[in-house]
Protein 1
Amino acid sequence: MKIVVLVRQVPDPNAVRFDARAGEIVSGTAQAPNEYDLVAMEAAIQLQESGQADEVVVMSVGPAKEALNRCLAMGADRAVAIDLPGSLTVDSQATSRILAAALKAEGYDLVLLGQETSDGGTGSVGPQLSVALDLPFASNVVALDASDRTLAVQREVEAGRQIVELGLPAIVCTLTGLNEPRYPSLKGIMAARRKPTETKTISDLGIDQSLLEPSVSWGRLFLEEESGEGIILRDVPADEAADKLIAFLNERKLLG
Ligand SMILES: Cc1cc2nc3c(=O)[nH]c(=O)nc-3n(C[C@H](O)[C@H](O)[C@H](O)COP(=O)(O)OP(=O)(O)OC[C@H]3O[C@@H](n4cnc5c(N)ncnc54)[C@H](O)[C@@H]3O)c2cc1C
């Protein structure tokens, strides 16, 4: 089985700084692989270690050097980096168009990707690829069992889990419950330096740039104004605070 893992590089959630006045993330923020994508990567490596996958390829659209290196160090065999022209802003639909063309060129039995990114966060790339490639699709996957030509997965649903079976080739979006992504070992980091990264452009993929014009445009980021009213008790002994709280709740008939 050949697995392609889709990985997006995002601002590192532990380092990200937001400029409220400009309404944007401060430029120069450290970058990291999207968390759910590392879960997809770990699942792919586990399938390879158990002998069910022959090859694991990691693929990304846009700047993703750090993310691809991390995945190669975790155990991916090789990487495909798709460069975007500097002037081009892509929305999720354009991203999916590019990934669909690159996946067709690459070939795959299973495509693993994260449920959503920590910045764009539309959760739309998986479903869009499923339509573009006409493939069976499962989202919110927290357990995965592969056999020769089928996949049994568990999906997290509101009140529990649901088991879904898919014929391969298929697309699966992963959630954090699926596994604990490994930290690359020193040996893995050294090995990654010798692994190939193929760089492609959108014209290599035969895509006409005019078809990638965004149909959704992003505005500035802003924080919602807090409007909730409340009473804060400061420097009050605990028993007095408890009495005040009970009186407050009683007044509003909130205690049974
Ligand atoms: C500076 C900036 C400006 C942007 N401007 C716009 C804009 O104007 N309009 C707009 O609609 N969007 C804009 N985006 C969003 C960006 O194009 C989307 O984040 C991207 O298209 C994917 O959508 P998503 O993040 O919602 O992915 P999701 O659908 O949430 O991602 C699900 C999974 O798909 C995979 N995936 C997603 N993206 C990639 C990728 N590039 N390569 C490989 N795998 C991937 C990952 O496995 C991910 O976990 C902007 C992003 C940035 C950083």
Protein 2
Amino acid sequence: MIEIAFLGTSASAPSIRRGLPAHVVMFEDRRFMVDCGEGTQRQLLRSGLGFRRLETILLTHAHLDHILGLAGFLSTVMRWEILPRVAIYGRRGAIERVKDLIYRVVLRGTRPSIEISFHAIEPGVLFEDEKFRVSAFPVTHRGGDSLGYLFQEKPRRPFLVEKAEALGIPPGPERRRLVQGHPVTLPDGRVVTPEEVLGPPVEGASLALVGDAGRVDDLVEAVRGVGALVIEATYLEPDRDLARRHDHLTAAEAAWLARAAGVRHLILTHLSRRYREREIRQEAQALFPHVWVARDFDRYRILKDGRLEVERAEAYEIEEERDVLAESERAGAGHSGL
Ligand SMILES: [Zn+2]
Ligand SMILES: [Zn+2]
């Protein structure tokens, strides 16, 4: 099971109900924070997740709505020494900008009180163990240098208890060795191989997370067949020309990708105040049935059989949000990112 918590679901600037992009992805006791928009540390507290084990931060790209929260997050973590270390990963452009923010603005020549490391990465596998893999894939978005992340629980062969019973294998270390793929010799001298007691491989849970993107045709292979695809939907089709101009997607384009790649569930985020949640969902659902429009503090658990368990944040009427910033967007400021 892989779980994702949404800490910020707004595009470009926060709204009354939505913070700037940040997600926490959890697998067993591992946690990864993906992006860290302004205000993320308060969202972490409000979500109940807190700062524990947030030692790995993955950045999708260098735009300010995705990285500015690192200054506040790291200064708090350093002041209280909440974490022993923080490692930040992203493509070179994102890492360079974040280094400027941390070294030139936050630290200004002082030594950090915890270990902070920066890792300029390219697409490929980032972390891997016997159960889990995290990899990065290229995403096309303004400024280049963007990454999406794929979280995969590895396929597992289930242990067939009935077969083990029938073969007379006692519960305990022999069964554990078989699960690990080793043959065992029973007290009566018989040798049992894993093949005899393990079922066919069962696909693990998987989650693909795309930050901002300007096109989807080059993402089909990277996200093929995942249990859940999280991706931006900054615009709707009537504003497709704005989407192209600012290198963002419409909800319909995100849904096209979900359908073309055969994913199980589509979760839309990076939303504009100019639309209502219902409009975004409807546009996507015309192409792909299993659509969620994320809200701050939503949690989604992706299970190995492709099912999704959803813990929705409190419902609210997004349409009530009509503020000054929204007015200026309608006047044409758009989601240019910075
Ligand atoms: Zn953005
Ligand atoms: Zn961007």
